[in-house]
């Protein structure tokens, strides 16, 4: 299945879990510690390194594709961008679980 069509369910997380992850990642959210930003950076790079900065800004600061594309060139259509954003959130969830499991 193409990334653009994948939902949170396809990534084995619920909409509620995704919303919680986004709240934790937001600039005013309860970020776990300095490692949280590094984990988010790793998650977005893993999903699509070419647009990692824009994905990071979208998740961390709540910026939409439209706002980001007005400032930066994004070489993907909106539906693909949001597919990679969902993948980044799922990657963050997976990386955070591994981080916690390994202490």
Could you please describe the fold and organization of this structure?
- The model has no long low-confidence stretch (mean pLDDT 90).
- α2 (34-47) crosses α3 and α2 (34-47) crosses α5 (78-101).
- The protein contains five helices and no strands.
- With 103 residues, the protein is an all-alpha fold.
- The longest helix has 24 residues, at 78-101.
- The termini are far apart.
- The protein is globular.
- It has one domain (11-101).
- Beta-strand fraction estimate: under 5%
Which structural class is indicated by helix and strand composition? mainly alpha
Tally of discrete structural domains: 1
| DSSP, total strands | 0
* Helical fraction: 55-70%
Q: Residue-averaged pLDDT, rounded?
A: 90
What is the rounded distance between the termini? 34 Å
Profile the largest sheet: none
Radius of gyration: 13 Å
| 3D shape | globular
Element string (H = helix, E = strand)? HHHHH
* Secondary structure tally, helices: 5
In the predicted model, the low-confidence regions spanning at least 5 consecutive residues are none
How would you concisely characterize the structure shown here?
The chain has 103 residues and is mainly α. The chain has one domain.
Descriptive key words:
103 residues, mainly alpha, 0% strand
Q: Secondary-structure blueprint of this entry?
A:
Elements: H1 15-25, H2 34-47, H3 52-61, H4 65-71, H5 78-101
Helix pairs in contact: 2-3, 2-5
């Amino acid at each position: 299945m193409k990334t653009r069509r994948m939902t949170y369910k396809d990534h084995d997380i619920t909409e509620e879990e995704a919303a919680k992850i986004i709240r934790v990642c937001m600039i005013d959210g309860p970020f776990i510690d300095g490692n949280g930003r590094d984990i988010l950076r790793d998650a977005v790079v893993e999903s699509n390194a070419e647009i990692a900065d824009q994905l990071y800004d979208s998740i961390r600061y709540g910026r939409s594709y439209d706002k980001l594309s007005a400032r930066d060139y994004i070489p993907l259509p909106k539906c693909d961008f949001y597919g990679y954003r969902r993948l980044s959130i799922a990657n963050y969830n997976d990386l955070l679980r591994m981080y916690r499991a390994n202490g």
